[in-house]
Design a protein that fits this description.
about 220 residues; Immunoglobulin-like; 2 domains; 3-stranded mixed sheet; about 35% helix; elongated; transmembrane
């Protein structure tokens, strides 16, 4: 005889199978990271923020949009340590390290160059991020500074020449006559010989007279 399972037994088997699958399957707990972004000024309002403002985790692995009231939320974030950054074309916001655990997540301020495991600067959750400064895209032109003149090689050469112009006559006046004659002899020996420039007009005249004489002799021969 065929045995027919009753509906009650079928429900019992299905529940036992679901319980067994849930026990065997790996469980991964997830956390939630939320906060608010404010603007800058005496009366900052989130509506003044640019529409391109984003909040990212680990350089864009997770991205959260900002609501009109400046709130953001990361839901179902796996356990781990994350770097939270605000990408804004208007302001520079602090960087926060968020650690998601089985319990409540924890947040710490991050300074560039500091140890990643530094847990001294604790930040309360949910986050309330305020800009440190406005973003500057242009560098202000520096004004005139006297030290820039001394850093210019041309100015240094000119200054040295002027100083030597006043010092050399005094040195030459106090110099021994024999040493003076020796220096003058060295200058004459090292002086480049003067080359005489040829007379271009005379050269052209000779060239023209030579051509005319050659043409006259050729006509006589004919």
């Amino acid at each position: 005889m065929k045995s027919i399972l009753s509906p009650r037994r079928i429900v019992t088997y299905v529940a036992a199978l679901a319980t067994l699958i849930s026990l065997l399957a790996p469980t991964v707990s997830a956390g939630q990271i939320s906060g608010t972004i404010n603007g800058q000024g005496e009366n900052p309002h989130p509506r003044d923020l640019s529409s391109r403002t984003r909040v990212t985790l680990n350089g864009g692995k997770y991205t959260a949009m900002i609501t009109k009231d400046g709130k953001f939320i990361f839901a179902d974030v796996p356990q781990g340590s994350y770097l939270l950054e605000v990408q804004s074309p208007q302001y520079v916001y602090p960087t926060v390290r968020v650690v998601v655990t089985e319990k409540d997540p924890r947040a710490y301020l991050v300074s560039y160059g500091a140890d990643w495991s530094n847990d001294n600067n604790i930040v309360q959750l949910p986050l309330a991020l305020t800009p440190r400064a406005a973003t500057e895209y242009f560098i202000a032109r520096e004004g005139f500074k006297l030290q820039h003149l001394f850093a210019n090689p041309m100015m240094l050469m000119m200054g040295f020449s002027v100083v030597m112009l006043f010092i050399m006559p005094k040195l030459m006046a106090n110099m021994d006559p024999e040493a003076m004659e020796e220096i003058q002899g060295m200058q004459e020996s090292t002086q480049m010989p003067a080359f005489e420039m040829p007379d271009i007009a005379a050269t052209l005249a000779k060239f023209s007279t030579g051509n005319s004489g050659a043409a006259g002799s050729a006509k006589k021969k004919q």
